[in-house]
Specification:
Blueprint lengths: L6 H23 L14 H23 L1 H15 L5 H22 L11
């Protein structure tokens, strides 16, 4: 059995597909008429989710240009701010540690290069 770089993304996609089906079936079987939740764009949670989606798109566009580590640090700090975490030292430390850890796991253990950015 030869595991390539597409193994884990396919495994995650299969899991998401299966569990989404389970959620749909369980929702259809336990339908209650009184539990209709309306989508409201003015809801702060919906707005934060929209901002996070937009930030993820921008992150995907900028990661090649500015490099994985720098872009990921800024992205994580921004997401933590959007999710209302306001302890700047903690935000910075978590963002730097997570970015470096992910970078090292990909580079050292998986031998997969991530974008270095324009200074490489």
């Amino acid at each position: 059995m030869n595991i390539g770089p597409d193994f884990f993304p396919r495994l995650i996609a299969a899991g998401l597909f299966i569990f989404s089906g389970v959620l749909i079936v369980s929702n259809l079987l336990s339908r209650e008429e009184d539990t209709v939740v309306r989508f409201d764009i003015k809801d702060p949670g919906v707005q934060r989710a929209g901002i996070a989606l937009l930030a993820s798109i921008v992150y995907g566009l900028l990661v090649e240009t500015f490099g994985f580590i720098l872009t990921t640090i800024v992205y994580l700090v921004f997401l933590m701010y959007v999710m209302k975490l306001r302890k700047w030292k903690k935000m910075g430390l978590v963002a730097v540690m997570v970015s470096l850890l992910v970078f090292l796991v990909f580079r050292v253990f998986l031998h997969i290069t991530l974008p270095d950015g324009f200074w490489a």
